[in-house]
Amino acid sequence: MSGLRPVAFPWRLERSLVPSPAMSVLVPVCSVVLALLAGAVFLAFTGRDPWFLYGEMFSGVFGTRYGLFETVVKAIPLMIAGLGVGLAFRMRLWNIGGEGQLYMGACAATWVALTFPDQPAWFLLPGMFAAAAVGGGVWGLLPAIPRAYLGVNEIITTLMLNYVAILWVDYLVYGPWRDPAGFNFPLTARFSPEAILPTLGDSRIHAGLLVGLTLALILYVVLYRTRWGYEIRVVGDSPGAARYAGINIGRNILLVMLASGVICGLAGMVEVSGLAHRLQPGFSPGYGYTAIIIAWLARLNPLTVILVAFLFGGLQVGGYIVQTNGVPATMVAMLQGLVLFFVLAGEVLLKYRFRRVRDPRAEVKKRDR
Hints:
By secondary structure, the protein is an all-alpha fold. The chain is 70% helix and 3% strand.
């Protein structure tokens, strides 16, 4: 037994400082494929045919005009919220509060719509956008202040503020803002036509799509073509190097969390103005949480967020479609969780690479020394 020698393998796993472009694309794609395979195993254990259900989802989403349009509708808030949390993640600020910021943006926009119902569209829509930006921005700034000056972990504070925002909206729609003519349902009064975003033809696709596409382009330019974007990336990649270079990290924490909250707040505004046309409990089926998965799957690239949001919009619409086959809608949440799990696991792979060793035995001798 003492004469046994370690086996010399021709490949070696080592840490990589810069992920290869091929791996940056391959890992997210494989993460989605593995998540679907894991979901298929779960569906098979429940006695269902996973390939039939996946086929129904695919054909229902991408094979019909209605499915495509509804996919775009669902992708709009996911896209905008994904851009918001992705901006914070780029600086390694873990903004888990996109859902609460979305709710506060919708709440502030609703206040404008209900307070000035007789005003024209040129006043109401910009006012609702501005109010949503303030509401979401303040909700993003609240956890940023203790993070910047006291080092308080922003994961806990942003997460807890989600529940505060959701319960605050519930209080309003069940109480002071409840529509007197709403047959006691927890809904606000319907917005006036001037407070509703225009739509594309007879579809439900609204102008929030242009807002999301414009924000993606602006964020891409800011991150990769401006000095502030360079500071954000440097702080995210190496806080020590950022301090050595004289970058004010505290100020950037405040600015980035503020901007992240503003963008998530706009997602809430376009949802209530473009689709719901009123504020109601649970108007967001977890868009702010799903945005976290979208941002990571897109590798924090604002332009890639557009594509990933569209795919996740299709996943949500497909989940509604397969309910007719007796599959619960929670299957979508399960698939989203699996995607997040495999994406995070893939992040580990991106930090390493396989290197071919020309002389494996010499490598083993060198290691033994």
